[in-house]
Every structure is written in structure tokens, then in C-alpha cells.
Amino acid sequence: MATDRFQRINDLESGDRIRIHLTGDGPVEAGGVAFPNPWETSVGSVHEERKDPRKGDEVRHIEFHRTVRLDAPDEIVPPDHVVLKTVHRMDQENTLQLTFKQLIEDSPGHYTLHALGFEDLEVLE
Asked: For the segment 15-70, what is each residue's pLDDT rounded down to a tens digit?
């Protein structure tokens, strides 16, 4: 199931409508914002990146990062945003994170990261 969920996230494209099931029953609060559960939203943008961490001249491993920026609930004011990130590391398990990134008021460019419990995701027609 985790592999299916990982693949569904990696197949998302800008404009896709999705329904995210958060951990628990009812709305989930993070950073003073109540996220509906389940939460229907759209994919805003997708960014992919390959990282080759090195130790000297030697590549330690290869990682593929995919960050999916989601259209946030109305209470969230840009530059605050919500991202769903996958990391595929060649020698380890895949990882998934759903994070609400909230700008720190007196510290431009710095964010407080609020992890949102993530159960499942459906792509809507």
C-alpha cells in the first residue's frame, strides 16, 4: 500500500484535483489553521531534483526528491504553503512528508514546519 501511495504522489501533475486523508478523525489543526479531513485541493506546482551527496570524490548515494506544492485552504496566506514531498533513495525505503510551511513573522525566508499526519491520497476526476 505504501508503494502504491508513493507512486500516486509521483504521478501527480500541476492542476490535478486530489483528496488527502489526514491522520485521525475530523479536522486537523497545525499552526493555527484547521485542515478539513479529508481535504480536497489541487496540485499547484511540481519540482523534481536529483541529489548526489558526495564524500570527497565518491558519491555516497543517489536521491530523487519530488516536491508537490498544494493549493492551500483559504485561511493560509502566501508565502505560507503546503507541500507533499517524496524522497527515493537508492539504498533505503522511500519517504513521504506532508508539511505546512509557515513563514516566521520577523525572520524573512525562514519557516516553521508543521508535519501533517498523512494516511492516503485519491486523485479525483
From this structure: 999 999 999 889 999 988 889 999 999 999 999 998 887 777 887 778 888 999 99
| β partners of residue 82 | 70, 100
Report H helices in 1-125.
Answer: 2-10
- DSSP secondary structure letters along the chain: -HHHHHHHHHT--TT-EEEEEESSSS-EEETTEEEPSSEEEEEEEEEEEEE--EETTEE---EEEEEEEEPPPTT--TT-EEEEEEEEETTS--EEEEEEEEE-TTSTT-EEEEE--EEEEEEE-
Asked whether 73 and 3 are in contact (CB, 8 A), the reply is no
Q: Which of 80, 79, 75, 81 has its CA nearest to residue 34? A: 75
* Threshold 0.70, pTM exceeds: yes
Position 25, amino acid: D
